[in-house]
């Protein structure tokens, strides 16, 4: 495993620094016995039993697609059943008299969710879905003028973000080719350099209204330096927001301290809340008392103590809850609450400690298998631990979709992206070191079988 420069190591926190030193001096082995040894030392190993795994060929799968949809926690059913029972037994009175009254159900997220994303409890809320929330937040934070109207995003942002940018600038009367500025990768490189992001922000300068980038690129798994990029955007007078779909529950975030204006994320990837489930939002406290900041208002964002007086004039709840619009879908929030409570038990530091070790072990396994087969694997996710999280995107030179199909048929659930990339997310909550070893053996068998045909 290659050592990082002192400069790159100092860019991450003290905790992460010690962890990375430990990982770098660890001598990995591509053996079943070594993988079992790592599992025996893993404090989170027991959490595998907290999740329900699909079965293939009568065995639980090796699940690498938590970056798309997380597995279902077993405790989720109890949270959902509680709401269903209250609905059955109390009907409308469940809003006020259930064990977790529905009218303030979302407030139970404030403290545990604030710990996950590094915020004050008043800065986070849950509502809607991810792209809906980004659109609503752009009402407040994308306020173009004749001279300051441009948006900076990354090249090949997730398609939903691209459609959002295009429709937003059209709505404000601008052309996407004029208003949207993409930061591109250099020729022959898979990832975007930080210096190129900073240079583009400085170049656009006084014309820049908003920087809005995915905190973790969905395709390559690159983690951006959110603190540095946010400071650069503010320096030229722009607002800065982040799409944290692949970052929340996966990356150590300090949204408040980084002075980020706003952010939103989905809950169904690393936070395992179920398909298409509710989104989380962050609005920095510096904006909470700005009465000139526009927003699309609705009943559920109105003063909580006066909400049922049915007043005509909107009086927003102080904090992020004041951006809520509609009565919240409690049945959707229940699985999310089950998940954030699990995160609160564990803590992000423990998650990230395992994340970095198991990702490094997967990287090692891939390199070892690469030595034993004719094909070659190019990991396009950054090698620097400060620039990656629970994902390795692997370019399979000399291989096609048939290898992906082989993996799927043999109990490895992974993700295929054209032209020949598989995304592997060893989520620390429910993947094991044994899984990494067994995956390597299945991968090798698939390549060798193809060679024999």
From TrEMBL:
One of its GO terms (biological process) is NAD+ biosynthetic process. Keywords: Hydrolase, Pyridine nucleotide biosynthesis, Pyridoxal phosphate. It comes from the Bacteria. Its EC number is 3.7.1.3. GO terms for cellular component: cytoplasm. Its cofactor is pyridoxal 5'-phosphate. It catalyses: L-kynurenine + H2O = anthranilate + L-alanine + H(+); 3-hydroxy-L-kynurenine + H2O = 3-hydroxyanthranilate + L-alanine + H(+). Pathway: Cofactor biosynthesis; NAD(+) biosynthesis; quinolinate from L-kynurenine: step 2/3; Amino-acid degradation; L-kynurenine degradation; L-alanine and anthranilate from L-kynurenine: step 1/1. The modification N6-(pyridoxal phosphate)lysine is found at residue 269. Residues 134-275 form the Aminotransferase class V domain. Pyridoxal 5'-phosphate binds at residues 130-131, 158-161, 243, 246, 268, 299, 327. GO terms for molecular function: kynureninase activity; pyridoxal phosphate binding. HAMAP family: Kynureninase. Catalyzes the cleavage of L-kynurenine (L-Kyn) and L-3-hydroxykynurenine (L-3OHKyn) into anthranilic acid (AA) and 3-hydroxyanthranilic acid (3-OHAA), respectively. Belongs to the kynureninase family. Homodimer. PANTHER family: KYNURENINASE. This is Kynureninase. The lineage of its organism: Bacteria, Pseudomonadati, Bacteroidota, Flavobacteriia, Flavobacteriales. The gene is kynU.
């Amino acid at each position: 495993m290659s050592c990082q420069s002192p400069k790159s190591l100092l860019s991450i926190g003290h905790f992460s620094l010690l962890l990375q030193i430990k990982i770098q001096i660890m001598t990995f082995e591509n053996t079943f016995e070594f993988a079992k040894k790592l599992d025996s030392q893993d404090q989170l190993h027991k959490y595998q039993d907290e999740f329900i795994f699909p079965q293939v060929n009568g065995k639980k799968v090796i699940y690498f697609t938590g970056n798309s949809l997380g597995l279902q926690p077993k405790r989720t059913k109890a949270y959902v059943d509680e709401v269903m029972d209250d609905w059955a037994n109390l009907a409308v009175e469940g809003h006020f008299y259930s064990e977790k009254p529905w009218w303030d159900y979302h407030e139970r997220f404030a403290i545990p969710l604030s710990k996950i994303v590094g915020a004050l409890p008043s800065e986070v809320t849950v509502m809607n879905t991810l792209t809906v929330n980004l659109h609503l937040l752009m009402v407040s934070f994308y306020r173009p003028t004749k001279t300051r109207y441009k948006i900076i995003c990354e090249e090949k942002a997730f398609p939903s973000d691209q459609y959002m940018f295009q429709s937003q600038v059209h709505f404000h009367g601008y052309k996407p080719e004029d208003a949207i500025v993409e930061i591109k990768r250099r020729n022959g490189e898979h990832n975007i350099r930080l210096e190129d992001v900073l240079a583009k922000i400085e170049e656009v300068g006084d014309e820049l209204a908003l920087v809005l980038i995915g905190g973790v690129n969905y395709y390559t798994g690159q983690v951006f330096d959110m603190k540095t990029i946010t400071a650069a955007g503010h320096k030229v007078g722009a607002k800065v927001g982040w799409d944290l779909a692949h970052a929340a529950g996966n990356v150590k975030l300090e949204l408040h301290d980084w002075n980020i204006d706003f952010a939103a994320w989905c809950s169904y990837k690393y936070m395992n809340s179920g398909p298409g489930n509710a989104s989380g939002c962050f609005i920095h406290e510096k904006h909470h008392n700005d009465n000139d900041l526009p927003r699309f208002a609705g009943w559920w964002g109105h003063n909580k103590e006066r909400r049922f007086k049915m007043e005509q004039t909107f009086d927003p709840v102080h904090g992020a809850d004041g951006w809520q619009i509609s009565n919240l879908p409690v049945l959707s929030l229940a699985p999310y609450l089950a998940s954030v409570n699990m995160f609160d038990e564990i803590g992000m530091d423990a998650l990230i400690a395992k994340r970095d070790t198991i990702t490094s072990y997967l990287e090692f396994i891939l390199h070892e298998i690469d030595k034993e087969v004719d094909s070659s694997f190019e990991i396009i996710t950054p090698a620097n631990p400060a620039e990656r999280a629970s994902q390795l995107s692997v370019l399979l030179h000399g291989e096609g979709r048939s290898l992906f199909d082989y993996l799927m048929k043999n109990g490895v659930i992974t993700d295929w992206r054209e032209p020949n990339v598989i995304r592997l997310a060893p989520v620390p909550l429910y993947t094991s070191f044994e899984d990494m070893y067994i995956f390597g053996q299945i991968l090798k068998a698939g390549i060798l079988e193809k060679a024999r045909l």
